[in-house]
Amino acid sequence: MFPLTLLGLLFITARTDHKKKKGTNQAATKEETPSKYDSMFQRGDLLEVPRTLFTHFGIYLGGGRVAHLIPDILPVLSDDEEALRQTVTNNRLILGVIAKCASVRVDTVEDFAYGSEIIVNPMDKVCSRPPLKGEEVADRAEKLQGSTAYSLLWYNCEHYVMYCRYGTCMSFQTFQFCKTVKKFILSQRSAKVTAVLGPVLVLYLGVMSLYSALVIVLVPFIIWMAS
Predict the structure, then answer these.
(1) Are strands 101-108 and 119-120 parallel, antiparallel or unpaired?
(2) Among the options 18, 68, 159, 164, which is catalytic?
(3) Residues 6+ apart with CB under 8 A from 56
(4) Residue 18 annotated among the catalytic residues of the structure
(5) 99/74 Cα distance (integer angstroms)
(6) What is the pTM of this model?
(7) Catalytic residue among 18, 157, 159, 164, which?
């Protein structure tokens, strides 16, 4: 992980602004209050929000609150609970992805959706496992609150909600991404490109040897056989 001291400089201004604000985010409070969203969603519903480059997921807890896993660097840098309760900014999110740290937090529906349309229980149609009871789903989501490790491919927000609602930790987004990468790499075209670029690169760098010759031959051959 890169030096956290350097990263902390990015949040000096942010923490100063947070201290000036009142803690208006009521999503993290334990006491549930009635909300207009209670007529739209049920406790334990899986909520999906389309984003520009990915899809974000959360579990509805009732009272207009949503539990979701989101990359966040700030818990590593600060213990200021008032600042941590604020909506996760893009800077916090991106640095959290790089540092592989995240948190399961509870936010309002508005903060979770971030202006996007909300889709309810889309995974019920594609998951082979039936959903658990709503109360059990919500209990699981609440018990996992707090800081956690993060992986863009192996543990993201979709893994979290799939475990809570279906009891299985998987991600269709990850599956599709890996499938696309595999299709691109393990193709006959990639084998041909590798077979041409390998010798050219070796000759250009002047590192021709028995080992480099084996690599030039074996890598395109393996890709070709796997394609």
Answers:
(1) unpaired
(2) 68
(3) 48, 49, 68, 70, 112, 157
(4) no
(5) 11
(6) 0.70
(7) 157
Listed residue (174, 170, 164) closest to 45, CA to CA: 164
Q: Is 169 a catalytic residue?
A: no
Give the CA count within 13 Å in the CB-facing half-sphere of 184: 6
Check residue 114 and give left, alpha or beta (phi > 0: left; psi -120 to 50: alpha).
Answer: left
Q: Which of 167, 58, 40 is nearest to 105 (CA)?
A: 58
Residue 223: its pLDDT value, please?
64
Amino acid letter, 141: A
The C-alpha angle with vertex 121 and arms to 115 and 125, in degrees rounded to 5, equals 130
The answer to whether residue 139 scores a pLDDT higher than 60 is yes
Q: Encoding tokens for residue 31? A: 């006491």
Q: Are strands 146-149 and 119-120 parallel, antiparallel or unpaired?
A: unpaired
Judge whether 68 counts as a catalytic residue: yes
**For the chain, how are helix, strand and coil distributed in percent, rounded to 5?**
50, 15, 30
Q: What is the pLDDT of residue 105?
A: 95
Beta strands in 27-161 (DSSP E): 46-50, 55-62, 65-71, 101-108, 119-120, 146-149
What's the order of all strands across the beta sheet hosting 101-108?
119-120, 46-50, 55-62, 65-71, 101-108, 146-149
pLDDT band at 6 (very low <50, low <70, confident <90, very high): very low
